[in-house]
From TrEMBL:
UniProt entry tagged with the keyword Transmembrane: yes
Protein name in UniProt: Transglycosylase-associated protein
Keywords: Cell membrane, Membrane, Transmembrane, Transmembrane helix
InterPro entries: Transgly_assoc (IPR007341)
Topology in membrane: Multi-pass membrane protein
Source organism of the structure: Hyphomicrobium denitrificans (strain ATCC 51888 / DSM 1869 / NCIMB 11706 / TK 0415)
PANTHER family tied to this protein: UPF0410 PROTEIN YMGE
Keyword Transmembrane carried by entry: yes
């Protein structure tokens, strides 16, 4: 497996896990919904944390990315519900 394929798989796993974690807070179900919410949340969370200078202080980069994406996913779902 080449590096680009591995990176896409890791990104998908992070998205699914983040969406799954976000579903505990805001509800929802389904693997595709977890994936979409988690991937969008990864971008939103990463952007917000960088713009606000927030560092979670988690030593493991993989866990830090999942938590950041989950927080971003929660924000995305809540904003979608407010706007809907």
């Amino acid at each position: 497996m080449d590096e680009q394929t591995r990176d896409l798989l890791v990104f998908a796993v992070i998205g699914i896990l983040a969406g799954f974690l976000a579903s505990f807070v805001v509800g929802g179900n389904g693997l595709i919904r977890y994936l979409i919410t988690g991937i969008i949340g990864a971008f939103v969370g990463g952007y917000l944390f960088k713009a606000l200078g927030i560092n979670l202080g988690i030593g493991n980069a993989f866990v830090s990315q999942i938590v950041t994406a989950a927080i971003g996913a929660i924000i995305v779902v809540l904003l979608a519900r407010i706007l809907a």
